[in-house]
Amino acid sequence: MRGKILVTEKRVLVIEDGRTTPTDHEEDEGLGREAGPQEDDREIFDREDLLETLGGDSESLARLVALFVEDLSAQVDALRTALEAGEPDAVESHAHRLKGAAANMRAGSMSRLFAEMEQTARRGELGRMPALLEKVGGAFEAFRRLSFSGGC
């Protein structure tokens, strides 16, 4: 059975082989925080914080990162579909979920971009979305590079 990620308001649940692994994290934690010169990588992916939340279980960390990377593409595709249909409420909803998922994964840069997308959609400014999606793509690639280079 392939693992799934279930994102709720304040939790990410990893469901794999009939087992559910929760991670708690306030989705807005870290938003708006300024990154210092040594904090750049942690803004992309704060591996140490997520590993601590998982009780030091590096195997769960690797599974969670892999599931997040796999699931994010599908979720962004759903956001794009809503954008192409001109549905700001649906775009806002997808961006909100993605913001929370990224925050739960300690991907602060990506979470802030999704927060900006959420606010932009709320204002009905869908014309700004393509540029934001491009930035999300860059943040996602940085997350992938950093998360997989560190042993995940």
Briefly summarize what is shown:
The chain has helices spanning 40-44, 47-53, 58-84, 88-104, 108-122, 129-149; strands at 4-7, 11-16, 19-24.
Description of the structure:
- The protein is mainly alpha-helical.
- The chain has a single domain (4-149), classed as Four Helix Bundle (Hemerythrin (Met), subunit A), CATH 1.20.120.
- It has helices at 40-44, 47-53, 58-84, 88-104, 108-122, 129-149; strands spanning 4-7, 11-16, 19-24.
- Strands 1-2-3 form a three-stranded antiparallel beta sheet, with helices on one face.
- β1 (4-7) and β2 form a beta hairpin.
- The chain is elongated.
- Residues 1-15 and 23-39 have low confidence and may be disordered.
* Secondary-structure class: mainly alpha
Whole-Å distance between the termini? Answer: 20 Å
Strand content: 5-15%
Reading the helices and strands in chain order gives: EEEHHHHHH
CATH architectural arrangement:
Up-down Bundle
Largest sheet: 3 strands, antiparallel
Strand order in the sheet with the most strands: 1-2-3
* CATH fold group: Four Helix Bundle (Hemerythrin (Met), subunit A)
